Amino acid sequence: MPFAFLTYLQPTHYFRLFTDAGNSAFPRVDALPPSVINQFEVDTRYRSKQAQDYDLSWQAVQSGFIGDVSYYTHFKKVSVRDNYHFIRKQFHPVWVFYVLLVRLFTFHNPITDIRAWIQTSHIKRVTAITPVLYSDWNHYQSELLAKSPLVSVVIPTLNRYSYLKAVLLDFEKQDYLHFELLVVDQSEPFQADFYQAFDLPIRVIRQEEKALWLARNTAIQAAKGSLIALSEDDVRIPSDWLSKHIACLDFFDAQVSAGVFYPEGHSIPKARSFFAIATQFATGNALLYRSVFEEVGLFDRQFEKQRMGDGEFGARVYLAGIRSISNPYASCIDVKAGTGGLREMGSWDAFRPSTFFAPRPIPSVLYYFRNYYGNTAARLALWRTIPTSILPYQFKTNRFLLLFGAFLSLLLVPVVLVQVFSSWRLASRKLEAGDRIGFLE
């Protein structure tokens, strides 16, 4: 990344990696169009011109710049002071202090760091983002939509018929009609008659094994369409969900349209309300060409009954240099069903296991982190995430309780260490065994 201190704050972000072709995700400032550069503020308070340029490149990415320009293939080192300057602009002061502590505890020069931390104390956090606008989108006539390619929609389901009913009714209302639904049903008891109530081109695949990634892989292999849409049994989608995904692929000449999730009862987060290069991949809301799976493979079954299989797939897509667009116009509501699905397999999320003495985080998380970002980055990710994961899932957005959880983790250090070491050991076994990535036949 352009600023080294991002390693402490975003240790397992896709953009920390260079693609297989040697490119970063950050456009060279001298390659950006003047119309884009002019909407950003040049911060002359940095000590070096290099830091100013990197800041502008960061602004371009955060504001949603998408273009065929030159990208940085390496980053020159900038001063400790300019690194503190940057993170003060981009992150809450608590995280700036966290970086200082990490650097002091890892034996960096305390005088240099404390001086730089103090000297940049006047730098205020910048939270406002001015998105790069794509005005042609509003009246875009997609040639790909006009060709009406077949879309194969993949939905795995496990003991969620009431939730599945709602999303299937949403598919009945789609304004794009050339699609097939492949539902991989792992439910017990299996209700074959359930699907007869829907006026939809559904192919039901009965799967006895309770295995989410096997289900998705099986459906993708059985798909007839040149486009694959990935959905879930506990989401709600608008009537133009498919058409907006397809138009996005066409508009940006992209291979992946990564839709935006937002919780039920809320609206789309402001930071994700505009087009941008995707920073994550979620299997509950995406559309991609079948050729993507042919290039990078199917989902890794090392994540079976665990978490972050979609994140790992997204990393492969990013490394292959495949353009993936965060698409707010193909959004969906994340209902977060309290039963069924992965809830029956052990966890609410990647860092909160089902029982208190189970490995924390879920071992597949460390398998992914260590495999792509290395052991040091994985440890930094643990420092950032474990303290705030002590409290239950329903409190994850409450800042006060998260802070309380961080203090609580200090009291529970022996237990937490046992959880983490257990997870690390199980992840090591996965790494030794290697991936379980299949390819389309």
From TrEMBL:
Keywords: Membrane, Transferase, Transmembrane, Transmembrane helix
Pfam families: Glycos_transf_2 (PF00535)
The keyword Oxidoreductase appears for this protein: no
Keyword Transferase: yes
InterPro entries, alphabetized: Glyco_trans_2-like, Glycosyltransf_2, Nucleotide-diphossugar_trans
Residue ranges of the TM segments: 400-421
Record GO terms (molecular function): transferase activity
Protein name: Glycosyltransferase, GT2 family
Species this chain originates from: Bizionia echini
